[in-house]
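Methods: example folding runs. The two proteins below were folded one after another, and each record is reproduced exactly as written to the output file, sequence line first and structure-token line second.
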Amino acid sequence: MPAKPIRAAILASGSGTNAENIMSFAADNGRLDIRCVICNKDGAGVIARAEKFGVPCHIVPVMRDGFDSFKQARLAQEEKVLALLQAEQVEWIFLAGYMQIISPAFLACFADADLGVNKVVNIHPSLLPQFPGKDGYGDAWRAGVKTSGVTLHYVDEGVDTGPVIAQRSFDRHDDDTFEDFRARGMALEYEVYREFLAVLISDDVPLRRQGPSKGDCLGSLPALGRGQ
């Protein structure tokens, strides 16, 4: 009997190129069902990309009115997001340029005791633990690094501190502009995310890996069942 499709959601804030990469993969692979996209920014480019793929897109910004603090407003927004995800029975969350810290309470709803991780995945534009935070490419560029990269990781309660799934590196060329540098990294982001998704729909989830790596560690990782 064929396995049921994996129900997933994408959280994004910006132009949505990584989200489109994931939706394109899902469109070609029936084992991955993107139930919805959730965006926290009005007018973000990801909204049109979701429409192109026929994926429902919910716009759920943080609304400050009526709350005493930003923290309260953010938690109220997370409750709305969580309700949408639960209604769709989402099992996995893929972050694709989602510019918002996720609370421990939210993450706990997607904790998997068998895997030992939260079933929330993020792509970050640096070789973590170098250059965490919102501007990985910019920070790496300004630091003058000769080699940078991207990191796919499970999300934990810290900022870009979760267990690494895969890292891929690229060189900075002497004649690079920042746009060249960033484009080379983003091409790797799409590649690494797709490799992970291919493993995920084959019923093998990469085991958490400790510490950074500059090589292709995705294919060399031991694998676990999905632990449903």
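Second run, written to the same file directly after the first:
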Amino acid sequence: MTKTRTIIRGVGGYLPERVLTNAELATMVDTSDEWIQQRVGIKERHIAAEGQFTSDLAVEAAKRAMTAAGVTPDDIDLIVVATTTPDYTFPAAATLVQMKLGMHHGMAFDLQAVCSGFVYAVATADSYIKNGLATRALVIGAETFSRLLDWNDRTTCVLFGDGAGAVVLEKIELDDDAPEQGILASALRSDGHHWEKLYVDGGPSTTGTTGHVHMQGPEVFRHAVGKITDVVYAALEEAGYTVEDLDWFVPHQANKRIIEGAGAKLGLPPEKVIMTVDIHANTSAASVPLALSAAVADGRIKKGDLVMLEAMGGGFTWGASLIRW
């Protein structure tokens, strides 16, 4: 007998060329490099160029993931783009990625769970694959979050950046007694009662405008650590593992203090926690795959490692996926 599993075949990340440093931000709003680094651990962020859209960032990350996986667009039959900042209200950014990759086959759609979007998308694609609806998927987190920011609001504009990360997921069949591989378990949660703590004050059905990000920072921080550890423990329990079994923790790159707090509450040593928030800030749905891409590229994450992905975002939404690399 065999069992169907979804493995990560390749990973890729892309950051726009323009870098916006804390020093430059300090000339725009009342802030400083020291204040930003001390509060959130961010040194710089990348900003998409004029005329460079979310789908463009997604395509670059997707190409790098496919190269790493040794596949072409002809091999892909599902594209899921996790994004809060699609090019248009519709069509889905995923269909534009499909077009830009030259694909006329398969299916493509967007998933909106804000910063948790990539983890939600991984779980969704895993379900599609295990239920026979897809064989090989591109799962992408991509954002041009800078276009939702009020650049006069120092409480939000210092926190976010643009970028994209992608993985190629692939169906495999394992003998029942073979060592486990791929996505072992996912835990997803949401609670819409907290929406006003982190939201954008615009949309097609309300104001007819894009709007700007608003955040109750202390409230988000207060909820974050507990919700993060909740889904991590749930995924571990489902798969029959403990925190001590983890080789790597790849959290949403929102805030250094939140990442450190979650790691400490889980009892994870800092050297097992992947942190890249300093070089690209909070890129919402792109942050987990960007961190994952960096850790795979530099050799930290390697075959056989047990890896936990985790994110929390507006909604609130939060989730985790446990993967045997």
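Comment on the second run: Residues 76 and 136 are 5 Å apart (CA to CA).
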